[in-house]
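Raw record, unedited: ABC transporter ATP-binding protein
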Amino acid sequence: MVGSSARRVAAQQGDSQLVVEGVSKRFGGVVAVQDVSLEVPRGAIVSIIGPNGAGKTSLLNMISGFYKPDTGRVVLEGQDITQKKPSDIAVLGIARTFQNIALFSGLTVLDNLMLGRHVRMKAGVLSSVIYWGMAQKEDIAHREACEEIIDFLKLQDLRKQPTAALAYGLRKRVELGRALAVEPRVLLLDEPMGGMNQDEKEDMARYILDVNQERGVTVVLIEHDMGVVMDISDHVVVLDRGRRIAAGTPEEVQRDPAVIQAYLGTSRSERA
């Protein structure tokens, strides 16, 4: 895509906004992630790829606070967030989407985005009763922020529609919007194009690039479509069986023998 080389140079020159140091996670006798480290440059798009069961979602869950690492730590802009709750991590600027769409299907597009604003809301129930004017002003400001996201994602005609009535690709776009409503500095996307047709994938890829370039949000995504990964990523990290086996630019990763073996090598069948 246009400008990808320039973005990669800029990302390589930037500082590390998110650092994952030697994290591991075990579930009973199963090692999901083992001693994985990575650095995410400020302003970059970093893709995490690997075969099914490689530990990609578990890694995102540790970054976002849904899982606590057994070892290692996660650092956001110099602050250790390893033991913080997911809600606290969201306040600090990390938002995420999920592999399976996690919208409230009975609520409208606008209401789902408003739910994403809750970490930015200061007026609680008591203050809303006592200081109605203040709470009302805050509500108006949050609605304006959500309306701006609706415009950005071209969902204007659907803002009052229940999300259950939307096509799959549109629901994925709404979930992206809800994550943007958190006002993230780092956005974690778990298979944002999973289950989409080619046109929907191209639309989502464009929105991810726009989020990164126009809104200045660092993006970390899990994606299985290698064409998309190689087109939009500044850096690629490859996991296999819970371990990091490669990292680098898309071009470097494509040529890495360990990556080729993990996806295509005979060792895959031998390990099965």
